[in-house]
Structure formats: structure tokens, C-alpha cells
Design goal:
Layout lengths: L1 H20 L2 E8 L7 H10 L4 E8 L6 E8 L5 H10 L4 E3 L1 H4 L1
Antiparallel strand pairs: 1-3, 1-4, 2-3
């Protein structure tokens, strides 16, 4: 019995570093074709429904500009590519912001 407890404890210590590798990340997307007042909320809702997304904020210079979305996500559950796929499927193609890459 004691040996089994020791084995489980050792396994728990080995598995913990792998779980710790998953983490929070942030990406900024430039979302195109989103030049109307209603587009920002649609983009925000679309991104919020992607599994692993923890938070979304969108900004739009004015009602006629494309949207910039800042997304906080669990990088073990989703990726920028998945978020771009989601917005593109709704008619809003996106790309990782060039200003965020610099």
C-alpha cells in the first residue's frame, strides 16, 4: 500500500511540469472587412466563443475602420490560427498584427 502511494506521488510530480507548460498568451489581430458599427461586437463574440479564449477586447478607430482585437487565451487549447479561422468563417479575415510582431 505504501509503495503504491509512493508511486502515485512520484507520478504526480512528473506530470506537474507538463501541466505547467500550458499557459496564458496574448495576441493582437487585425480584423479586416469590419468597418461598420456592428462589426466590432460580432468579431468580439466570435472570438469569445473559440475554446480556450479567456478574454477579448476590440478597438476601432472609428465606425468605418477595421477592428483590432486583443485576445488572451490558453495556448494549450487554441492558437492564433484557430482564431483567424473563426473570424474568417464569419466573413472577417484576420491576421496577426504587424505592429504586435515588432
Amino acid at each position: 500500500m505504501k509503495a503504491q502511494i509512493g508511486i502515485f506521488a512520484a507520478l504526480g510530480m512528473l506530470i506537474t511540469p507538463f501541466a505547467a507548460q500550458a499557459g496564458q498568451a496574448t495576441v493582437v489581430l487585425d480584423v479586416h472587412h469590419a468597418g461598420c458599427v456592428l462589426c466590432g461586437p460580432i468579431v468580439k463574440s466570435t472570438l469569445a466563443h473559440v475554446k480556450g479564449v479567456m478574454g477579448v477586447s476590440v478597438s476601432q478607430a472609428d465606425g468605418n475602420a477595421d477592428v483590432m482585437a486583443t485576445i488572451t487565451y490558453d495556448n494549450a487549447q487554441t492558437s492564433p490560427a484557430a482564431m483567424i479561422k473563426a473570424t474568417t468563417a464569419r466573413g472577417y479575415p484576420a491576421e496577426v498584427s504587424k505592429s504586435a510582431k515588432s
